[in-house]
Amino acid sequence: MAAPPRHTSKVTHLHIFAILALSECASASPCTRLQPSNPLLSRRNAVISDTGGIVQVFDPTTQSPVPQFPASDGGGSGFSPPAIAWIILAFVIGVPLAVAGIRGWRLTTASAIGLSIAACSWVAFVNTVSGSGLPDLVLTIIVLGFFAGGFALGLFEVGRIAGIVLLGIVGGASLATRVIIMRAGLLTSSFPGNWAMVGALGLAGGILPIYKQRAGILFGSASTGTFLAVLGADLCINQQAGMSRGLRFLFDRNSSHLADLFAKGYHPPISTVVIIACSIPLIPALSYAQHKVFRHPFSRKPVEPDEIRGSIYSTDIKPSQILVKAPGRFSM
User: Fold this and answer.
1) Which end of the chain has less neighbouring CB within 10 Å, N or C?
2) Signal peptide location in the record (predicted)?
C-alpha cells in the first residue's frame, strides 16, 4: 500500500496537538480561572459574574475574588443616627434654598460651597475605601465636617463668586441626577453616559450665573433646594430604598460594593418616582416666585458713600442697588 502524502501526516499531528492542548486546559485549574462563568460586565478593574444566582467579583489581573461588603455608603439603615443626620441636613438646607435662596446672600453661597465639597468628598470616600470601609456614622461625620468647612468659607467675601458659580453647578447636577434615578436601573445602561449627563447639566448651570447672575441664582437655589427637600422626604418615606439607593447606584463604583449593587440592582418605589417627578416642575415655579417676591439684588452689602457720589456722574449704579443700612442691624 502506498504511504500517505506527507502533508496529510502534518495535518494529523496538528489535530492531535490541538486535542491535547484543549484537554489540558479543561483539566488544569489555571485555565478554568481565566474567565469567571457568565461574566456580566467589567467595572473599575473588576469582573462581575453570576454563577447560580450568586454574584461574585473577581480581580481581572489575578483572577482572585474581591471581598464584598454592603454598600451602605454612610446612609445608615432605617432611622439610625446617620440617616437622621442626613434627613435634618436635607430639610435645613433644602427648604430655605427652595423658597428664599435669592435672599440668603452669603448663607446661600455658603450652602453651595458646603454642598459641593461634601458631595465630592462623599463620592471620593465611597469609591476609594477598601474592605469593609468606614462605619456609616464615621463617614457621615467626616462628610458633614467637609460641609461645615465649605459653609464657613462661603460666609466670607472671598467665597462669594465661587459660591454663586457652584450654586449653579449643584443646581444643574441635581436636576440631571433626578432625571437619571427616576428609572429603574438608571436612565441608561451606560454609566459614563449617565455621568456625562450630570456633568453637562452641571456645567450649564455653572455658566448661567456668569452671564445672567440673577437667573442663575434663582435656578440654582430652586433646583438644589427642591432636590434636598425631596431627598429628605423620600428618606422619611422609603428610608434607604428610594433616592438614597439611586444615588449609591449612580455614583458608587467601589469594587468591594459591586456584588451588593448589582445583585440587588436599583428599583425605585412608585412613591420615589412620584416625588421626583413632582419636584422637577417646582424648579421653574419656585424660581419665578422668588423673583417676584424678592425683588432686591442678591447682595445685601450697602453701597459705599464714594460709590453713591460717583453715581451722580455715572449710570452704572441703579437706584435699586443703593441700600440703606438700618441702625444697629447686623449685615454679613
Assistant:
1) N
2) 1-28
Q: How far apart are CA 141 and CA 50, in angstroms?
A: 36
Question: How is residue 231 written as a grid cell?
Answer: 431627598
pTM of the model: 0.73
- For residue 181, give the nearest of 254, 230, 143, 120 by alpha carbon: 230
C-alpha–C-alpha distance, residues 175 and 181, integer Å: 10
Q: In the predicted model, is pLDDT for residue 77 greater than 50? A: yes
Summary mean pLDDT of the chain: 77
Give the type of residue at 243.
M
- pLDDT tens for residues 202-237? 999 999 999 999 999 999 999 999 999 999 999 999
Strands 39-43 and 54-58, by their bridges, are: unpaired
Q: What is the pLDDT of residue 12?
A: 46
- Report the distance separating Cα 111 and Cα 95, nearest Å: 12
All three cell numbers of 115, joined, read 454642598
For 59, which DSSP code? -
Q: Mapping DSSP to helix (H, G, I), strand (E, B) and coil, where does residue 51 land?
A: strand
Q: What would the pLDDT profile of 126-165 be if each residue is shown by its tens digit?
A: 888 776 667 888 899 999 999 999 999 989 888 889 999 9
Give residue 143's identity as a one-letter amino acid code.
V
Query: Alpha helix (H) ranges present in the chain?
Result: 6-27, 29-32, 81-100, 106-128, 136-154, 160-181, 191-211, 213-238, 243-251, 258-264, 270-293, 305-310
Q: CA distances (Å), 170 to each of 119, 204, 219, in order? A: 9, 10, 10
Q: Are 214 and 298 in contact (CB under 8 A)?
A: yes
Domain-wise residue ranges, the chain:
37-66, 81-293, 299-324
Q: CA nearest 104: which of 330, 299, 320, 302?
A: 299
Cα separation, 177 vs 246, whole angstroms: 9
Q: Which amino acid is at 16?
A: I
149-177 residues labelled b (16+ CB within 10 A) or e (exposed): ebbebbbeeebbebbbbbbbbbbbbbbbb
Residues 6+ apart with CB under 8 A from 47: 36, 39, 41, 57, 58, 59, 60
Residues across the chain = 332
